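Quick illustration for those who missed Monday's session on complexes.
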Amino acid sequence: MTVIPEVPDKLPFAGTTIFTTMSALAAETGAVNLGQGFPDFPMSAALSDLVADAMRAQYNQYAPMAGWLPLREAIATKIELLYGCRPDPVTDITVTPGGTYAIYTALTTLLQPGDEVIVFEPAYDSYVPNIIVNGARPVLIPLTGEFRIPWSEVERQVTSRTRAIVINSPHNPTGSVLHPDDIEALTALIHKHPLFIISDEVYEHLVFDGIPHLSLLRYPALRERAFVCFSFGKTYHCTGWKIGYAVAPEKMTTPFRKIHQYNCFSCHTPVQVALAQYLETRDAYLQLGAFMQQKRDYFISLLQSSRFDLLPSSGSYFVCARYNKISELDDAAFATWLTRRHGVATIPLSAFYQQKTDSGLIRFCFAKKESTLEKAARQLCAV
Ligand code: GLN
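Prediction with glutamine bound:
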């Protein structure tokens, strides 16, 4: 008798991601989709043309494992311009299929079974599964106040098993950003404890109100032990391209590339050739914060007469809202009700908590064209 083996489930708590679920519900019901974070306006035609040109010029075979070198050089130049340090394109920069993959690879590089990783909740939904799949344990610490890091609690939770801490600024889902005192506290922490840092900076250009993005790459003591992860999809309005990069010192990048080379191996070549050229157009990324801030401000102004209370957002694609003047439903039920009844899909914040903690908050994505924001706002003001 043949015995069919049982398929192991390494993530027994996981189901379909909330982004897939809410986008499917929006499609099914014809709702305006302010849930999953993606722009609905066109990306740059010049950048798409460069990809087509690269394909026609026969850049269609494998790129080098670490990434197309002119792209890594252009990335180094951008980092130097913005953050005042120039990572070595040969040893410190790896092009990856998206920011999420960079984060997964960084965690997989660092973690051994039994290790602990500090993660702040609400947390982007991939961090915890990425830690667990590596046999490690997430140590979950709630953000406090306006979604700031409670550093004294972090200090209490560090043990001899703590291998890494995950930082995300601008923060998904709340739009909070790191302040200079966070940098000081993080620096003090890593001086005391042998920790690595995974810094998710995929929204680096989407910081508002003239606040500078405090990339960890600005700080020598932090960057010497950090994987800093970025996304071209967020920068160039093409989230479906799934291309990003990780920056880390050579001694961290070398083992990172060992994982990467036996997984994806290398990324889409024509896109890398195109991005290398397009990065020369500095305005395309330098103006992005102001462009997205306008969308945030427009959306906030449109919701002024609604019964939603919007929380502050200093960056990212997102703003969160309290709905307690409207409903006593838990946030997941409220998000479903809002989609079905009022035709606007959002993301309930409980999706960003391992225990699905109901925070009475939903997340709106405002990276949309004006007509989309207006249609959504008309429906939300009628709630
Ligand atoms: N980063 C996107 C968001 O937060 C979603 C990406 C995904 O669907 N996995 O909405």
